[in-house]
Specification:
Layout (H helix, E strand, L loop, with lengths): L7 H12 L5 E2 H8 L3 H14 L2 E6 L2 E6 L6 H18 L1
Antiparallel strand pairs: 1-3, 2-3
Length: about 90
């Protein structure tokens, strides 16, 4: 598996996604929500989709991304992300 929290972009994406696990978002919408560049975010989402953590669906001309809850390590990753985020909030 790719290093989980290796970049700021990936950390922000995963924290947002795991705190909003039932949402489907298109790249530009998600980029605005986490205040990141849509091009970089698109590349990151493609990597994570290839890894199996995200899935995508096309609606009309939009490609929507969401967490793949069937991913074998979904529960463990969710626990790690939420614990990491809680720890970061306490230090702030």
């Amino acid at each position: 598996m790719v290093v989980l929290l290796s970049t700021r972009l990936r950390r922000k994406l995963l924290v947002y996604s795991f705190t909003h696990p039932d949402e489907d978002r298109y790249v530009r919408e998600l980029a605005l929500l986490i205040n990141e560049d849509a091009g970089n975010l698109s590349r990151e989402l493609r990597k994570l989709e290839k890894e199996g953590l995200y899935k995508s669906a096309t609606r009309g001309r939009l490609k929507l991304y969401s967490l793949n809850k069937s991913y074998s390590l979904f529960g463990e990753l969710k626990s790690i992300i939420l614990k990491t985020e809680a720890g970061n909030k306490r230090r702030s």
